[in-house]
Request: fold
Amino acid sequence: MKKILVLGCTGSIGSQTLDIIRAMPDDFCVAGLSAGHDAEKLSLLCKEFNCPGTVFVNDGIEGIRRLVQECGADIAVNGIAGAAGLEPSVLVLESGMNLALANKETVVMAWPLVQQLAARQHAQIIPVDSEHSAVFSLLKQIGSDAAAELIITASGGPFRTYSDEQLQHVTLEQALQHPTWNMGKKITIDSATLANKGLEVIEACRLFGFPADRVKVLVHPQSLVHSLVRTKDGMLYAQISNPDMRRPIFGALAYPAVRENYLEPFDLAGHEMTFSAPRMQSFPLLPLAYECARKGNSYTIAFNAANEIAVNAFLSEACSFPQIAGIVQSVLQHDWSMAADSLPAVFDADKKARNEAQAALVSITGGQHCLH
Reply:
């Protein structure tokens, strides 16, 4: 039986991880839980899973450190959203524990450091994002040396058919209505702007060692094909399933085994699948992410930080939907060529980018709003 540490247990990824543990009690058990919010729900979960006394709410990074050290887990699922999830990933890997990673910022902000740490501690990083989980599985079967190109799919979000004029006037309520996935607010907005797909391009380049020009994006509204790999002989191989995050989570928990589970197998009969190229000019955050993936260094940190500030502003109705990209673009006009070769350097670049984003927010919105 595998013992699971769930970081961010009240969020979307954490909750679905616990669904799997409930459904497969002979295979998995809870070794520890953490949450930054919702103490009442955390307390109920602790009682339900008879969790050891290593549960912390709003106890900062030291609480996470103690939890990692004391829980005795075999694998940690990091479902903490945003830059706050980076340091917990580092703590998990420092302990030598395997990491099922749903936190994009760990890869986007600090991949060279994290990769070196995992190698030094002989710990495995298993991606949980549906797209990267699919690529991870496909490359295991095909072999990285045989792969010529990675293709990650995008639902296109709620505005994929909107004209450029319509995109100027979308509301927060509209942006929060994702057509396929049920996710947190921040990632839902990122899906609407295609910033999420941009972050996933950066992730794919780093996780699998592919240059940006060999990582493509394909709009696929049905979200049934999660990623594809094109081999050197021109053939395409795809991973196909229902859009259910429990599948990639289960794959990470079971790794390296491929095992039967309680999830209903997908039946292709009766389903139609359509594909199209992304509209780069209409959704500028995607090409900006490609640019950052090519430049590397602290550009990816700046992209992520500026986007977080801009999305928070939009969620607070302090800026418009198009202004999200405008804020990020403004920040990226600065020089981010410095290498962030330590965690303090990563957080320093992150802080500088956030400050620049705040200044851009004030400039773009006429100085009416400033968020922290």
In short: The two ends are 43 Å apart (CA to CA).
